[in-house]
Amino acid sequence: MKYPAFVFIALFSLSSHAAIYKCVIDDVPTFSQTPCAPDAKELHLKVSKAPSPGVSHSILQQCTALAKNSYAWRDPNSFIVVSHEKQWRDDASGARLVLAMQVNAKNGYGGYGDSKPFNCFLNHGGTGLSTVQHWIN
Question: Does the pTM of the predicted model rise above 0.85?
Answer without folding.
Answer: no
